[in-house]
Write a structure and sequence with these properties.
Elements lengths: L6 E5 L10 H7 L4 E5 L18 H14 L5 E6 L1 H12 L4 E7 L8 H21 L9 H4 L8 H12 L5 H4 L8 E6 L3 H13 L4 E5 L6 H4 L1 H13 L5
Parallel strand pairs: 1-2, 1-3, 3-4, 4-5, 5-6
Helix pairs in contact: 2-3, 4-6
Length: about 240
């Protein structure tokens, strides 16, 4: 946590850690209380051996507990990739705690059961690879994953997180997009091919959402083009109604 002012909670992507937001702490701390955290099984957090201790619902509960521990009643809630998805899920569960949403290089899940099954199959394959190769399985992945390789305590914790948090159940998040009633910023790198269409879809479905495409950025848009990303984020935050 850094800075003071209106609260901004940032959640990382799968197999990254809270450190992926260090640049945003520096860019925003003069006007905002920036909060970043590492999800279960990630970084130096606890990695329960019980696979049932990993799920999107439990991640949302962890976010609520963190904000309440910090005595934050309302925050701008956002994240990248998995962090963006759970930010949307958090809004569905606790809309009264969300001042605005910032969804980066992410997607809202699937209505189509076959598409969801294919996504989940990839998540399970990633878990199996982590169990076989350990943290070396993160090499060759997107930038936020590679840079976090040395920060994780447990490859098995990441494997459980892949099966329980990255894998998805149902279509609640995508079905609820049209009901979002807070200012929403959607950011995506112009080279993040798998997530360009999902971000464009969310921008069309969420009422009044603002879509920003960052030139020269891939899946880790905040790391690939930090100056452009920070400018877009700061402009959005500064333009919000008073907290």
């Amino acid at each position: 946590m850094s800075g003071s002012g209106p609260a901004v909670l940032l959640s990382h992507g799968y197999s990254a850690t809270r450190r992926m937001w260090d640049g945003q702490h520096r860019a925003l701390e003069d006007g905002y209380q920036v909060i970043s955290w590492s999800m279960r099984g990630h970084g130096q957090t606890e990695s329960p051996a019980d696979p049932s201790k990993y799920s999107a619902d439990l991640t949302v509960a962890d976010m609520e507990a963190l904000l309440r521990h910090l005595r934050v009643e309302r925050a701008v809630v956002g994240g990248l990739s998995l962090g963006g998805y759970v930010s949307l899920a958090f809004y569905l569960a606790h809309p009264e705690m969300v001042r605005a949403l910032v969804i980066c290089d992410s997607g809202p899940g699937y209505r189509n059961a076959e598409a969801r099954a294919a996504w989940n199959q990839r998540a399970h394959e990633r878990a199996a690879e982590l169990e076989t190769r350990g943290l070396d399985a993160l090499s060759g992945r997107s930038r936020e994953m590679r840079e976090a390789m040395g920060e994780h305590r447990s490859a098995h914790g990441l494997a459980h997180a892949a099966r329980g948090m990255l894998a998805q159940e149902g279509s609640d998040v995508i079905d609820a997009l049209a009901g979002v009633r807070v200012p929403t910023l959607i950011i995506v790198g112009d080279q993040d091919q798998p997530f360009l269409a999902p971000c464009e879809y969310m921008a069309k479905k969420v009422p009044g959402a603002r879509l920003e495409v960052i030139a020269g950025a891939g899946h880790s848009s905040n790391l690939d083009q930090p100056d452009a990303f920070n400018q877009v984020l700061r402009d959005f935050l500064d333009g919000l109604p008073a907290a």
